[in-house]
Amino acid sequence: MPEKYEVEISNDEETLKVEPGTNLLEVLHENDYRVPSLCGGMGLCGKCRVKVLKNPPEPVESEEEFFSSAELKNGMRLSCRLEVEADMVIEVPSLAGAGKGEANAKAELDEGIEDVETDSGIEREYLELAEPGRGDQRSDASRVLDALGQGDLSIPLDVLRTIPGRLRENDFSVTATVDRPGSDLLSIDSPEKQYESYGMAFDIGTTTVAGYGLDLATGETLDVNSRENPQGKYGADVVSRIKYVREHDDGLERLQEEIIHSINELVNEFAEAERISPEDIYKATFVGNTIMLHLLAGVDPTKLDQAPYIPGFVESQRVEAEELGIEINPKGKLILLPSLAGYVGADITAGVLQTGMHKSEQLNLLVDIGTNGEMVLGNREKMVASSTAAGPAFEGANIEQGMTARTGAISHVNIDEEGQLRLEVINDGTPKGLCGSGIVDAVGELLKAGLIKNKGNIITERAQLARPTINPLGNRLIDIGNDKAFWLHVDSNPVFVTQEDIREVQLAKGAIKAGIDIMLEEFGATADDIDRVYLAGAFGNYLRKENILRIGVLPQIELDKIVSVGNAAGQGAKLALINMAREREVEELARDIEYIELSFRTDFTNKFMSAMEFPSPAEIE
Questions:
Q1: pLDDT tens readout for residues 427-468
Q2: How far is residue 516's CA from residue 369's CA, in Å, rounded to a whole number?
Q3: Alpha carbon 299 to chain centroid distance?
């Protein structure tokens, strides 16, 4: 047996050296190939497909569920089920439109914090110090503290070591950087540095990580970048990632390394774009769901997927950058904003802060639609929150041809009154699958066209043909095995919506709707009492409000009451970054909001079953 086998990736022109018996999916991930693995390599999702062009192994039983006999004969395999036992040549289908590494999407600079006073707590002060002499033999540290007028200021040893040299290099004219809340001296620099003070706000989503770079003195957003969360290769959702931590001795360490590496890339991109030193970034705030923050901090999350779902922490955490290996100023302050519970994280508390719904006299609802549906209902008098496991359908996962929002993903579907079908595809590419907004639109439009019953069944072709108004769509109804489907795009690589896809949407939307219904009951209110519904998250920006109502994610309310607030979590993180009062405000919010654990509610199952049905046309009107 050779010491190593060669695995050639034909559609990337790279050859990897691999130890015998190594799992192929792990090899691809270790070499930075972002091959999807929604189930965390358990062989359950069928997304980590490869085509073995040379030396294909015999298929295992679980692969027969995902591939036809012809596909298996042609070398299609699941990389998570394949151990390298010979030299191989493979083709990785998921590289089309994705490639090696992480896609870096440059987003537009967002608005929303212009009127907030900047008071980040990071202060840079220019000092002109008297030089020592016979009549002034104070220590260098005392000289700095006296000039700052803060004798009780703490000086970390690493900073203390730099003071003698920096004072003399700059003829005793220097810039001191102080963290006021922590009473720490963070650095002594040259006098030219007095106007350079930067911070970053991070929104760590299960799917996407966004980093905002700000000027702490002015509060201006200078730069924003985002990328796929690299932890996704270990599982599409938080439960899969918790499972990975539980089943691998180095699982927590590996997931933490992945997210810190991604954060540091965003730090360096900001620094390069603004031509600054990462050491001039003195503060960073972080939001995300509770599990994401546990993985960032390296805190065991494995108690969060089993009752009673107790997190290691929900309180805000304040640590030095060097403690986590975040490559800003080593003494810079990292603030993990507070969560509410195991499945209502800091992204939600930050979203409440951004919308200001906690100050409103009217009843408002904040909903973050994703793998985990998180909701807050309330006003200035009272607020309640809950979360529900909606499943990954709204992320494009567990959908037969689901994919992330990248080139080739159908993002919007429209069926007009004449039965004409129109598709919007990301980057105007050839349709390859559906992302989350695409599957919501597809189901909503099929309901509108009468092709789906309110219980979720795709109608039979015979019933469809009896309705002339939708006859143009009749030839798109097909059978796939024992399952019915509707063709959205027809060519050599067709894209379709299956009956099972519709069931996944029903499960996801039913869970969210049931949670909202319970919160309304707890509040003693009805849907008519809701003044505003805030759709949070990047996903909320892309959803068509009419189809959100049509499939029944939300109670039936007036369309103009629904407001997409984009990445409210990121905006809230920015507010806390540049203003200490807002940071304290979000901490107070976290203490005041009442959390309802839906899994302990005896009425949840009945409400969930009822909410799985789609609204009737009469209800929508």
A1: 888 898 998 889 999 999 999 988 888 899 988 755 544 444
A2: 12
A3: 19
